[in-house]
Design brief:
Blueprint lengths: L14 H10 L1 E4 L5 H16 L8 E4 L17 E5 L6 H8 L1 H11 L3 E11 L7 E4 L13 E7 L10 E3 L11 E6 L2 E4 L10 E3 L6 E5 L4 E3 L8 E10 L7 H7 L30 E2 L8
Antiparallel strand pairs: 1-11, 2-3, 3-4, 4-13, 4-14, 5-12, 6-11, 6-13, 7-10, 7-12, 8-9
The protein binds 2-oxoglutaric acid.
């Protein structure tokens, strides 16, 4: 792929790649994590799901309709959709978030000094992995300047069209914040259908250890996983130091319908049961870069 940085490497981004991030809202860092680190992250996720590693503050969310109490510990990782707040649970997962190679690239794009404020592992299980509708990540964060936020999505398995790789619309971040509708189902929220330029979508197929770096206003989506293949990924969100976190009124200035009503994803748009949504603000994890293991 032309947009690849190429090989397991600590090479800096080229001027073309920096320009691509500004113009298209994304850039791909091939081989950001080596095989040993990838394997250690996979093992840590598996250990968290099965109980071999204490969960601590880590939260597991399962695919809809799954009752984890009915599953043997070893089977749980094949029904989990999402892990949250896992960085302190394992040195491998912390390393992935603090990887010096990654932060050198982010320094080039955004300048120095940032905070890890959200960490998720998105593990679309074989056959039952559900879709993530088209959205802008900034719709989930009550920040006033989405340009100070960057998302990093790291493949732990090969991510392909078959098992639900990332799809995106290059340049869509330049259109600013667009209204989202809340499904009043747990944190499911989507860009209003006519505003998604589906014909221009591109699928970003990735190998384990590759990282997609993307702007928080980029329109993106992942399809369901009907295949027998796993599709595990780590996703980190960082904000630059000084980014302002605010309330719903400030977020509403960015995300609103034509009539001014709130159209972000941090509260449901209709009255909904407590269990249907969760806004938990930002984690305060200062980035202290660490040398990658491989
Ligand atoms: O990995 C996925 O399936 C979805 C990732 C994503 O776009 C998100 O959680 O914001």
């Amino acid at each position: 792929m032309d947009d690849a940085i190429g090989g397991p490497t600590s090479a800096p981004l080229t001027e073309q790649e920096i320009a691509q991030y500004r113009r298209d809202g994304w850039v791909l860092a091939r081989g950001l994590m080596g095989p040993q680190s990838v394997e250690a992250c996979r093992a840590a996720l598996s250990d968290l799901a099965s109980g071999r590693l204490p969960l601590g503050d880590t939260v597991l969310m399962y695919e809809k309709g799954v009752d984890p109490a009915t599953l043997a510990p070893e089977a749980r990782e094949f029904a989990v959709r999402k892990y949250m707040d896992y960085v302190p649970a394992s040195p491998a997962l912390r390393m992935a978030a603090m990887n010096r190679r990654l932060h050198d690239l982010l320094d080039q794009l955004l300048g120095r000094g940032r905070v890890l404020f959200q960490e998720m592992a998105l593990v679309k299980p074989p056959r039952i992995g559900s879709e993530k509708p088209w959205h802008q990540d900034a719709s989930y964060f009550r920040v006033t300047d989405p340009g100070l936020i960057v998302g990093v999505w790291i493949a732990l398995d090969a991510a392909t069209r078959e098992n639900g790789c990332m799809e995106l619309i290059a340049g869509s971040h330049l259109g600013g914040a667009v209204p989202h509708e809340h499904e009043n189902d747990f944190n499911r929220c989507r860009i209003l259908d006519p505003l998604v330029a589906r014909d221009a979508r591109i699928a970003i197929e990735m190998e384990p250890g590759d990282a997609l770096i993307f702007h928080s206003l980029l329109h993106h989506y992942t399809a369901p996983n009907p295949s027998p293949l796993r599709r595990r990924a780590l996703q980190f969100h960082y904000h630059q130091i000084g980014a302002v976190w605010a309330g719903v009124p400030e977020h509403q200035r960015l995300f609103h319908f034509e009539d001014g009503r709130y159209a972000g994803c941090t509260v449901p748009h209709e009255p909904a049961d407590e269990s249907a949504h969760w806004y938990r603000g930002a984690l305060p994890r200062t980035v202290l870069p660490e040398e990658p293991w491989d």
